[in-house]
Amino acid sequence: MTDLPGIVVTGGSGRMGQMLINAVKASEACKLVGVLERSGHDWIGQDVGVTMGGAAIGVTVSDDPVETFAKAQAVIDFTAPAATIGFAELAAQARAVHVIGTTGLTEDDIAHLDAAARHAVIVRAGNMSLGVNLLAKLTKKVAAALDEDFDIEITEAHHHHKVDAPSGTALMLGEAAAEGRGVSLKDVSDSGRDGITGARQRGDIGFSAIRGGDIVGEHDVLFAAAGERIKLTHIATDRAIFARGALKAALWGQDKKPGSYDMFDVLGLGD
Ligand SMILES: NC(=O)C1=CN([C@@H]2O[C@H](COP(=O)(O)OP(=O)(O)OC[C@H]3O[C@@H](n4cnc5c(N)ncnc54)[C@H](O)[C@@H]3O)[C@@H](O)[C@H]2O)C=CC1
Ligand SMILES: O=C(O)C1=N[C@H](C(=O)O)C[C@H](O)C1
């Protein structure tokens, strides 16, 4: 039991944090050794079993990442970009696998993560579910098979608390479509349309975002041409799918060399 990899969950009180804590607790392949929250949060100093409404489990919520990561073989992190950048450096110092689900990262943020990945394993994906990663591979294949007569439009829908758009998943799907077409997403991305935008540019990949209620996450990739349309869809109804993927990544990363990995690596979804 004591040899099982120790997992730290950051942002423990969050929507994903709580899913992750439950997933780690239920797993026979690892053990929960720490939970982090931001300084000032009212869970700090309390047993996480109690803060989640149950019995004490002997893990106290902390706001000290250095001390907490020292106990970890893996850190699972679904928080916010600024927090994730700081955690990457500290997880690398602790030689812990850093599984990152946080979205809304800038190019500069990703450069920081790549620097940390020179010293430790980082697995990062805008969506950790098997279904979305498969959808990305399908998107790439369909985009490669069709020419620019087919306009590609990616639509995503999420709960009203979500702070970033387009979603990490939408961007993943956009990257997959762009790769299939042999172009760079940066050159063809069209997001946030409002006002007199002008006609759609041939070859663009468009993004639209819906925010409302408690939608867990829905993504459509539309290929629209004159006379016909193809739509690829993923609907998440339970955040457990993301937690399952993240836990799989944390265990998968244990015997890997330092570097940046994604869920295609973890799930063995090559081209
Ligand atoms: N890659 C994937 O499969 C998925 C990614 N996400 C992403 O995960 C992130 C979190 O999503 P939710 O759980 O819905 O958000 P949330 O707002 O419910 O939870 C975020 C938690 O992080 C904590 N936090 C923020 N700064 C911190 C710090 N410096 N130290 C410790 N804790 C800190 C907050 O207090 C909060 O409890 C978002 O970026 C979201 O897009 C969400 C679901 C799936
Ligand atoms: O914030 C969320 O909730 C989600 N975020 C991820 C994203 O940005 O795509 C994954 C999932 O769709 C839920």
Automatic annotation (TrEMBL):
GO terms for biological process: diaminopimelate biosynthetic process; lysine biosynthetic process via diaminopimelate. CDD domains: DHDPR_N (cd02274). NAD(+) binds at G11, G12, S13, G14, R15, M16, E37, G101, T102, T103, A125, G126, N127, M128. The keyword Amino-acid biosynthesis applies. (S)-2,3,4,5-tetrahydrodipicolinate binds at H159, G168, T169. Its EC number is 1.17.1.8. It is an enzyme of class 1 (oxidoreductase). It comes from the Bacteria. Its main location: cytoplasm. It holds the Pfam family DapB_C. Belongs to the DapB family. This is 4-hydroxy-tetrahydrodipicolinate reductase. The gene is dapB.
